[in-house]
Specification:
- The complex is a heterodimer of chains A (about 425) and B (about 80).
- With about 425 residues, chain A is of the alpha/beta class.
- Helix content of chain A is about 35%, strand content about 25%.
- Chain A is built from 13 helices and 21 strands.
- In chain A, strands 1, 2, 3, 4, 5, 6 and 19 form a seven-stranded mixed beta sheet that branches. In chain A, strands 8-15-9-10-11 form a five-stranded parallel beta sheet, with helices on one face.
- The longest helix of chain A is centred in the last third of the chain and has 20 residues.
- With about 80 residues, chain B is mainly β.
- Chain B has one domain: Beta-grasp domain (Ubiquitin-like (UB roll)), CATH 3.10.20.30.
- Chain B is about 10% helix and about 35% strand.
- A five-stranded mixed beta sheet of chain B has the order 2-1-7-5-6, covered by helices on one side. Chain B has a two-stranded antiparallel ribbon with strand order 3-4.
- The longest helix of chain B has 7 residues.
- Classes of the chains: A alpha/beta (about 425), B mainly beta (about 80).
- At the A-B interface, strand 8 and helix 3 of A face helix 1, strand 4 and strand 6 of B.
């Protein structure tokens, strides 16, 4: 198994990871940046590596190109064979990386809530369909409903429309007055106001429904229509695809594997982005959902701190307090409504991997109990989808501990780990 | 660089735009579902970002996620649908 060595290993090449790796190198350290995707950019900057259209993306991706950072893609973390020795799965086989310090910048995924028909082909995450389209998924001439909650719905709809989709409607579950409050909270942030104005132009003419949510999706073999609930009314809308998401959830699996302390589902860090585990820094959405500006600031701080450089700066402090303000406004505005807890029927799947229905887990008091009782969360995704749903639906705590391997991986990832640990035990 | 790549899906030859994901290539080739669950219900790409594993297929013999992999010439993709 090939073994690489580095001073600072940065896991996740989205904005936070790129900023961390580039800043660590600028501060005189050696950094290795890895990502499970085929190129850098994370979710928000998907497609920007080949054709940058956003100024900050161009700036940071150019900085990465011009820096001596060793960047490698298509690597997915499986486990740590020992402290400071990461094992990755790749299409070509297992790879090990030995490092002195670690920056985790694994971003966020979408929260999904089950409803009848949510497993049909043609039902996607909202950001999910957006990134699929950025990587060539054809939507030209397709009729798409975008639904769920949060500002990502608008960004996703704009991307889909630009790619030739017809947006049947955007359905935001939140009430009008919360949305108005959120819009006002953007006032001190000119960048966000500009973004909102641009999105409004790109989405001109698209029906935007507030107080509305998808109750079910129907179709034979793929989605053909959805039912949209608005107060007492339910409306059937024909469509070729449904893009649905209920906000973002930090990807904390790697941080949890290493034992980093969490609060409210996000990794706890100090002012240097240092976690509760020595030598482990965290940056971006895993420290709390706050968007790309926050991710860049935290990445810079984490990279500099991991390199042993000073992190305090007037510019970074101002940027940090502004992005924290946005993060709070975001969290307060898009609280999920209670009705979303009652969409699923008895035979609706909660765990898509192991086909566990709501009826099978009713009465379970924790995710762990549902796992032991009904195999919930024991399939390929390891509760990445149903865990976040159960948290909202039943108040289940996401499990504090995660177990390796973090993803289904080829056998060679384990054989070396296993043989080395047994070598020490056997005579 | 060619603007198309030639690949094989379940043994049949397809030409798809270069640089796209395997998941997108499957949709270009007309696939609605790319996997069957235990109850034989059809599944396809869902999260789009390597989290849900619904888009898993066999690429050149090993199980990979269609949303994370890019198409390459002569790639051999096998679905379970």
């Amino acid at each position: 198994m090939p073994e690489l060595r580095t001073e600072i290993l940065v896991i996740g090449a989205g904005p936070a990871g790129i900023a961390a790796a580039v800043s660590a190198e600028r501060a005189g350290a050696r950094a290795l940046l890895v990502d499970m995707q085929a190129e850098p950019g994370g979710q928000i900057w998907r497609g920007q590596w080949a054709r940058p259209t956003l100024a900050p993306a161009r700036q940071w991706l150019d900085a990465l190109r011009g820096s001596p950072v060793d960047a490698r893609y298509g690597l997915r973390l499986v486990d740590f064979a020992e402290p400071g020795l990461a094992v990755f799965d790749t299409a070509q086989g297992a790879v090990r990386v030995r490092c002195e310090r670690l920056v985790i910048a694994t971003g966020a995924r979408e929260r999904q809530l089950p409803f009848p028909g949510w497993t049909l082909p043609g039902v996607f995450g909202a950001g999910g369909l957006q990134v699929l389209v950025k990587n060539g998924w054809p939507v030209k001439g397709r009729r798409v409903v975008v639904a769920g909650s949060g500002p990502l719905l608008l960004a996703a709809a704009a991307t889909l429309r630009a790619a030739g989709a017809e947006i049947a409607c955007i359905a935001e579950q939140r009430r009008t007055r919360d949305l108005a409050r959120f819009a006002l909270s953007l006032a001190p942030n000119p960048g966000k106001c500009l973004q909102a104005a641009i999105l409004r132009t790109k989405l001109a003419g698209v029906p935007y429904r507030r107080n509305a949510w998808v109750e079910r999706a129907d179709g034979a073999g793929r989605v053909e229509s959805i039912c949209l609930r608005r107060g007492a009314r339910s409306e059937r809308i024909e469509c070729d695809a449904l893009a649905v998401g209920f906000g973002l959830v930090p990807n904390t699996e790697i941080a949890r594997l290493l034992g980093c302390a969490l609060h409210d589902g996000a990794v706890v860090v100090d002012e240097h982005q240092h976690s509760s585990v020595p030598g482990v820094y965290c940056a971006g959405e895993i420290c709390g959902i706050g968007g790309v500006d926050q991710a860049l600031v935290q990445g810079e701080i984490a990279g500099r701190a991991a390199a042993g450089a000073a992190t305090a700066s007037f510019r970074l402090n101002i940027a940090r307090s502004r992005s924290a303000h946005f993060a709070r406004a975001l969290r307060d505005a898009f609280v999920l409504r209670d009705e979303l807890r009652n969409l699923a029927g008895d035979d609706t799947l909660l765990c898509r991997c192991e086909n566990v229905t709501f009826a099978q887990v009713r009465g379970c008091r924790s995710q762990r109990e549902a796992r032991l009782h009904a195999r919930l969360g024991m399939g390929h995704c390891q509760a990445r989808i149903c865990g976040a749903a159960g948290e909202f639906l039943f108040g289940w705590d996401a499990e504090a501990t995660v177990r390796p391997p973090l993803a289904p991986s080829r056998l060679s990832c384990f054989t070396v780990v296993r043989s080395e640990s047994t070598r020490q035990e056997s005579p | 660089m060619s603007s198309e790549v030639r690949l094989f899906i379940d043994g049949a030859e397809f030409r798809v735009p270069a640089g796209i994901s395997v998941a997108a290539a499957l949709r270009h080739a007309g696939y609605e579902a790319t996997r069957r669950a235990f109850d034989a219900s059809p599944r396809a790409a869902f999260c789009g970002m390597g989290v849900c594993f619904e888009c898993r297929v066999r690429i050149d013999g090993s199980e990979r996620l269609g949303c994370l992999e890019r198409v390459t010439d002569d790639m051999d993709i096998r679905c379970d649908a």
